Amino acid sequence: MVDEKKEKEKKAKKIAPYKPGKMCPKCGSRMGEHSDRVSCGKCGYAEFKARK
Ligand SMILES: [Zn+2]
C-alpha cells in the first residue's frame, strides 16, 4: 500500500538542480556559490557579490 502523504513529502524534498555558476576568469572552472561571494576552489580566485 502506498502512503500518499509520504509520496508527496518525497517530491517536496526533491533536491534542487545544481545551478550553473559563474566560471572562474582565471582557470575556467566553475566557481562555488556562497551567500555573499563566489569563489574558485581551484585557484582561489574570489569575487564578492555587489550589494544593493
Ligand atoms: Zn580558478
Which short descriptors sum up this protein?
52 residues, alpha+beta, 17% helix
Describe this structure in words.
With about 50 residues, the chain is of the alpha+beta class. The protein has a domain at about 20-50. It is about 15% helix and about 15% strand. It contains one helix and three strands, in the order H-E-E-E. Strands 1-2-3 form a three-stranded antiparallel sheet, with no helix packed on it. The radius of gyration is 18 Å and the shape is elongated. The termini are far apart. The model has no long low-confidence stretch (mean pLDDT about 80). Bound molecules: zinc ion. Zinc ion binds next to loops.
SSE layout:
Elements: H1 4-12, E1 32-33, E2 37-39, E3 46-48
Summarize the structure in short.
The protein is of the alpha+beta class. It is 17% helix and 15% strand. It has one helix spanning 4-12; strands at 32-33, 37-39, 46-48.
